[in-house]
Each structure stands twice: as structure tokens, then as C-alpha cells.
């Protein structure tokens, strides 16, 4: 049975995503930070990891991208989880504080606009927030997380689906030491030369080779003002040979290019409880 590292404690969204991907046929290892996941695999304590990469409301999780660029792990799979944020409390007092992960608060902005008196307390993951509420919270404290947290940590469900939009999905990737030899989806990052037409020349092979571009996003390149890296996902449509051709042509116009992974497009699951 494979050992899989994930962020948080049992009941975190990463844990739920991992259980769906592996159909329960894995031993899960709790980690406090994203970097701990990479370290666990590097040390041999786990063979694979589950890492949140982007959310349909709050966007890409750049810390995950940074670690994939800096470390040697590759994306070998993905799973998409429909996120349904639930509000929990310990007692019946007026809520004054709320514990949860920073990304969760980004996805629940409207709720906190309506309740500006509630202080947002950042915690490493949603399950740890529920544990804090259960162990040391007061009657004025609350936490946000998955529907399963109530039973796991003995906290009271106050309200379901407090996210800004019901179409709230998080894409998780499965990371490991070795790149897959086969797959239909590719993730990569690159930085282009500061020259007119560089981006067009870099992306032109996608259209010509019939590759389906699923995502392109730019972000600042750390330490180099006004230079950017681009995060790209695309589907090969069964044309594996075109990947080598496309990468070869892209290298003529980029400062660097890194393939983050080759894998199959993931299934979507609903955290409905």
C-alpha cells in the first residue's frame, strides 16, 4: 500500500481529495505545510503527495507552483474536488472569531463582508481549524471546513455552503519522484525573452500541432522586476510525439522551460457529505 502525504489532519480537503483519487487504497500521512509534503517524499517517509494547485474562485496557489519549480517532484495525476465550505461553532454565542486556511477566507469574501465584526484567524488547514475550535475554542469562536469535520471533531454545524459561488472547485495534483511515461495532459512553466513577439512565437506551435491549451497564466518572476513566468496546461489529444516537437520549438524562444508533469486528466468529485 502506498504512503501518501497530504496537508492537514483527517477531514481536510487534501485528505478528502486523496481518498477519492486512491479510492481509500493508501496510507495517508498528515503534514503541516506544503513543504513538509515534499520533504516527506524526499526522505522516503511517503511515496506520493497530494497538493492543491488552483481554485476556481481564488485562482492558482502559487506556493504549490513554487515548490514544483524548486523541487524535483513531478505531477503524476490530478483530482478535482467540488468545495462546499461549512461554518462550525462550539457553542451558541455570537461569533467573533473564525479559524480557517487563508485560501478558504478568499473563497468566502461575501460572508465576511456581511459579517465584518468576525476576526479571521489563519490556520494551516481546515481540519486543524476544527480541532482548535474543539479543543481550545470559546462559545464565540467558529471554523470553516468540509462537511465531515462536524463528526470528526465534535463541533456544531451552523451553516452550509458559505462560499461565494456554488461552482467552487479545487484542483489537486498527485506528486511523485518520477515523471510518467504516458499521459494526455501536460503542465509546464516557462519564461520568455524580453523581445517583441516572443510570447506569440513561443505559443504558435500549440495551434499548428493541434494541442488543446487549457490554461495560461502569468505571474512575476521573483527577483527580476517586470519579467514574468507563464504557467500552462494543455491536452495532447493522443499525440505524444507532438510534445517533444513542441518543447523543442519552444526552447528557441524562452529563457527556461520546465515540464511539471505528464498525467491523465482527473475526475471531479463532490464533497457533499
UniProtKB/TrEMBL annotation:
Pfam families: PDT
SUPFAM superfamilies membership: ACT-like, Periplasmic binding protein-like II
GO molecular function: prephenate dehydratase activity
CDD domains from the UniProt entry: ACT_CM-PDT, PBP2_Ct-PDT_like
InterPro entries with a match to the protein in the record: ACT-like_dom_sf, ACT_dom, Preph_deHydtase, Preph_deHydtase_CS
Keyword check for Secreted: no
Taxonomic superkingdom: Bacteria
Keywords, sorted A to Z: Amino-acid biosynthesis, Aromatic amino acid biosynthesis, Lyase, Phenylalanine biosynthesis
Residue ranges occupied by any Prephenate dehydratase domain in the UniProt entry: 3-177
Catalytic activity: prephenate + H(+) = 3-phenylpyruvate + CO2 + H2O
Biological processes, Gene Ontology terms: L-phenylalanine biosynthetic process
Name of this protein: prephenate dehydratase
Amino acid at each position: 500500500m502506498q504512503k501518501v502525504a497530504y496537508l492537514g489532519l483527517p477531514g481536510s480537503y487534501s485528505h478528502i481529495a486523496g481518498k477519492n483519487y486512491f479510492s481509500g487504497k493508501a496510507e495517508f500521512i498528515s503534514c503541516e505545510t506544503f513543504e513538509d509534503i515534499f520533504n516527506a517524499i524526499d526522505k522516503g517517509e511517503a511515496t506520493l503527495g497530494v497538493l492543491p494547485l488552483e481554485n476556481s474562485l481564488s485562482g492558482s496557489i502559487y506556493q504549490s507552483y513554487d515548490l514544483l519549480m524548486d523541487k524535483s517532484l513531478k505531477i503524476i495525476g490530478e483530482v478535482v474536488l467540488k468545495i462546499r465550505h461549512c461554518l462550525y461553532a462550539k457553542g451558541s454565542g455570537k461569533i467573533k472569531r473564525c479559524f480557517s486556511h487563508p485560501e478558504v477566507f478568499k473563497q468566502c469574501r461575501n460572508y465576511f463582508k456581511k459579517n465584518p465584526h468576525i476576526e479571521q484567524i489563519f490556520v494551516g488547514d481546515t481540519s486543524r481549524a476544527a480541532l482548535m475550535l474543539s479543543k481550545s475554542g470559546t462559545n464565540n469562536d467558529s471554523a470553516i471546513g468540509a462537511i465531515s469535520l462536524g463528526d470528526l471533531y465534535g463541533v456544531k454545524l451552523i451553516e452550509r455552503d458559505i462560499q461565494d459561488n456554488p461552482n467552487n472547485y479545487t484542483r489537486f495534483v498527485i506528486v511523485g519522484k518520477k515523471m510518467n511515461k504516458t499521459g494526455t495532459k501536460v503542465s509546464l512553466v516557462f519564461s520568455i525573452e524580453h523581445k517583441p513577439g516572443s510570447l506569440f512565437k513561443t505559443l504558435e506551435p500549440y495551434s499548428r500541432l493541434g494541442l488543446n491549451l487549457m490554461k495560461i497564466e502569468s505571474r512575476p518572476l521573483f527577483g527580476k522586476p517586470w519579467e514574468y513566468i507563464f504557467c500552462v496546461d494543455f491536452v495532447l489529444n493522443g499525440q505524444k510525439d507532438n510534445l517533444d516537437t513542441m518543447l523543442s520549438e519552444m526552447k528557441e524562444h524562452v529563457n527556461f522551460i520546465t515540464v511539471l508533469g505528464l498525467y491523465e486528466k482527473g475526475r471531479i468529485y463532490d464533497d457533499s457529505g
